[in-house]
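Re: the 180-residue chain
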Amino acid sequence: MNKFDEAYFSGGCFWCTEAIFQRVRGVLSVIPGYMGGHTSNPKYEDVILGNTGHTEGVQIKFNSSLIKYKELVYLFFLSHDPTTLNRQGNDIGTQYKSVVFFNNIDQLKTLNIVIKELNDENIYNDPIITDIKEFKKFYVSENQHHNYYNLNKEKSYCEYVITPKLNRIKKKFEHLMKNN
């Protein structure tokens, strides 16, 4: 029997993160939403103002016999800039900060190992400042944010931000991508 697990990442705009992980083999679902804040049942309009403490993030359900959590973590760190505080490109604010929410002690250990390896390899000019937090609650975003890139590829944000990022990731991590 296959083992299914969950991962929770916030790495800037959830449209970007969702689009990347939808293309990864072994990933069963990617749901955009909000995490880590102090407001119950947050709405997009409040989150983007930075008033809720939540980040835009994704819930990833994956088949751990096809892809390991460590591979997802590497993909997460190398798909955005984990060295900037509250910013990814032109997306600025606490809702865009880099955060990984761990579910258990094994995930926490893996996160610490990957961060140390990336820092030791000097992958970035600056140290990784991604927050590591214990997972508490995930709030699913409004429907218009689900599958956003796939439904809106012609929109300027998709063309100028997501498509180039996807192309870089697909090329660098071809071995982790779905065949279709």
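The mean pLDDT is 94.
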